[in-house]
């Protein structure tokens, strides 16, 4: 699942590379991606890209008079093809929509899943998309404070891993980076926010900010087709069940969480208890 560091790098790439180009043609190959029937993606033809921005895990392509919001979901991404570059082979994620741009470039919206998670919204502005309007504060934002974080936790009787991934509470974090944050903070993924003392909450806040901002810095300038591999390579515990914890040497373990699998270190995070 793309999370804020990768989506930030993607939006920066689009701002740098697509700005000033006109959309010459739009071809939607999977109509379940279209979320705004009154303004389908074809209404973007003839408009010029003026920039790009990130909102949580959503990309906004800014155009004169409209915005294209790409909700990447669990498996969505975007692919850039320069003039003369061949179409990717069948081993690559399929394009569900393509945008022909001036300068003989092509922007493709792709989805690698067995079900369609990608969404395309053509709107007047990002706040017209309900999922963006409901986003909580973003830990990547320089204005994000401990007070924002404490408000998200709210002393709730809810697992902190779930809160970290709850977009209405904190924008941009998914399964992978929440595992990394919790490991760095030495906090169990299943502990309730209400059970955290001030020291634990402070460690979790510091880990959230440093993990997300550090990953954004590390992903900056990486070619967008290499971002997923770079993310995987950077993980300390996520996706590394059976390997040794880089901090204590214990074996990293799996546990089931919200219809997916997450990872943790028993010694660092749960006092040796297995989840």
TrEMBL record:
Names of the cofactor(s): Zn(2+)
Domain named FPG-type: which ranges? 236-270
Q: Which Gene3D superfamilies match?
A: 1.10.8.50, MutM-like, N-terminal
Q: InterPro entries, alphabetically?
A: FPG_cat, FPG_N, H2TH_FPG, Ribosomal_uS13-like_H2TH, Znf_DNA_glyclase/AP_lyase, Znf_FPG/IleRS
Q: Which Pfam families match?
A: Fapy_DNA_glyco (PF01149), H2TH (PF06831), zf-FPG_IleRS (PF06827)
The answer to keyword Ribosomal protein applying to this record is no
What is this enzyme's catalytic activity, as reactions? Hydrolysis of DNA containing ring-opened 7-methylguanine residues, releasing 2,6-diamino-4-hydroxy-5-(N-methyl)formamidopyrimidine
**Name of this chain's protein:** Fpg/Nei family DNA glycosylase
Say which species the protein is native to: Microbacterium helvum
Upper lineage is: Bacteria, Bacillati, Actinomycetota, Actinomycetes, Micrococcales
